[in-house]
Every structure is written in structure tokens, then in C-alpha cells.
């Protein structure tokens, strides 16, 4: 079972405002940019999500370097089936996620946010979902997820009442069948 904070954080991360953090300064420094501070500066909610590193930069690194840049000591701290280069390219570093969790859920202390980020990094389904979402948004920035239309309240009430009406009618019919069988066989 997933923790409520992790589910809330994942919902926030996948929301349209999910792109509220800047690329880490470490990636900027690695790419030859200036500003090697270790904290990510929060951005406005309307700012687009930027990848931590490009695929070309990640291709020149080995897996241990990618894990170190991601902020993990070993590969066991990352979910099975998830490549650190995908996390770095489409999500960001561990510090980025901690800052994002704290910005989205202000009641989180630093240690709470770090614990939830560690759980999030071990959740392969959520990481894969977010990576695919970010890839899709990168391919087509105007793309928005398609959600099934919600039925009207009248349809919900009709469905609810009809479902229970079917069970009530089935119960009455079953009682009648059992009663008739018992009367025909003489037991009862």
C-alpha cells in the first residue's frame, strides 16, 4: 500500500503545475554553465519543466556517475527497471525532487520530504508514469491528458439505484424459488 503522502505528492507531480522547479545547478555546471550552487531555485507554476541533462550529456557518463549525480549511493536506491539516465533527463535529481515535494506540500520538513522522495524513487510505476508523461509533453507541448468524461449526477443516481434494485429483485426471486422448491419437496 502506498503512503498517502506519496500518493498526494505523485498527484501533485503529475498535475499541470508539475513543472515548478528549475534544472539543478549541478547539471548547469556539468554542461559548462555558471552557477554551481546545490539548491534548485523555485520557479513560477507556469514555467515549463526543463530536463536536468540532455541525452547526449548522459550518453557520455557511466551508470555510477549518473547515480552520483542523481544523488543516490547505489543502484539499490532506485526502482528496478528504471534507468538513472531517464530519471536525470526527464525528472531531475534527488535534490530537485526534495525541493519539489517541499514546495508542493509545505508541511513537509526536510527529513519528511527526503523520506518521501526515497519512497518515490523506489516506486517504479510512479517513476515510469512520470517519465512517460514528461516524454509525451516534450514531444508535443500542447498535449494534455485525455480523461474519461464524468457522468452527470442524474446518471450517477440512476446507476446507483438500478444496481441496488437489481440486487433486491434477485433476492426476492431467489427467496421465491427456494420457498417453492421447499413446498414441492414437502420439507418446510
How is the secondary structure organized here?
Blueprint: H1 4-13, H2 25-30, H3 55-59, H4 63-70, H5 84-90, H6 94-104, H7 110-122, H8 124-139, H9 153-185
Helix pairs in contact: 1-7, 4-5, 6-7
Question: How far do the termini sit from each other?
Answer: 49 Å
Number of strands: 0
Q: Which oligomerization state do the chains in this entry correspond to? A: single chain
- The assigned structural class equals mainly alpha
Structure annotation, total helices: 9
Low-confidence stretches: 4-50
Basic shape: elongated
Q: Proportion of β residues?
A: under 5%
- pLDDT averaged over residues: 75
Relative helix content: 55-70%
Question: Can you describe what's shown?
Answer:
This protein has 188 residues and is mostly helical. It is elongated, with a radius of gyration of 26 Å. It has nine helices and no strands. 23% of the residues are buried. Helix 4 crosses helix 5. Helices cover 58% and strands 0% of the residues. It starts with a helix and ends with a helix.
Amino acid at each position: 500500500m502506498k503512503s498517502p503522502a506519496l500518493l498526494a505528492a505523485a498527484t501533485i507531480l503529475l498535475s499541470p503545475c508539475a513543472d515548478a522547479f528549475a534544472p539543478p545547478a549541478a547539471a548547469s555546471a556539468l554542461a559548462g554553465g555558471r552557477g554551481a550552487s546545490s539548491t534548485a531555485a523555485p520557479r513560477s507554476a507556469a514555467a515549463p519543466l526543463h530536463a536536468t541533462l540532455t541525452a547526449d550529456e548522459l550518453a557520455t557518463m557511466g551508470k555510477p556517475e549518473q547515480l552520483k549525480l542523481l544523488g543516490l549511493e547505489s543502484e539499490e536506491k532506485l526502482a528496478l527497471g528504471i534507468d538513472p539516465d531517464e530519471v536525470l533527463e526527464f525528472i531531475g535529481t534527488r535534490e530537485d525532487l526534495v525541493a519539489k515535494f517541499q514546495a508542493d506540500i509545505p508541511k513537509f520538513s526536510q527529513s519528511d520530504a527526503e523520506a518521501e522522495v526515497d519512497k518515490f524513487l523506489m516506486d517504479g510505476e510512479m517513476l515510469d508514469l512520470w517519465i512517460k508523461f514528461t516524454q509525451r509533453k516534450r514531444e508535443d507541448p500542447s498535449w494534455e491528458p485525455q480523461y474519461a468524461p464524468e457522468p452527470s449526477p442524474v446518471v450517477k443516481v440512476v446507476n446507483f439505484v438500478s444496481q441496488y434494485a437489481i440486487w433486491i429483485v434477485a433476492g426476492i426471486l431467489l427467496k421465491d424459488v427456494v420457498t417453492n422448491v421447499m413446498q414441492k419437496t414437502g420439507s418446510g
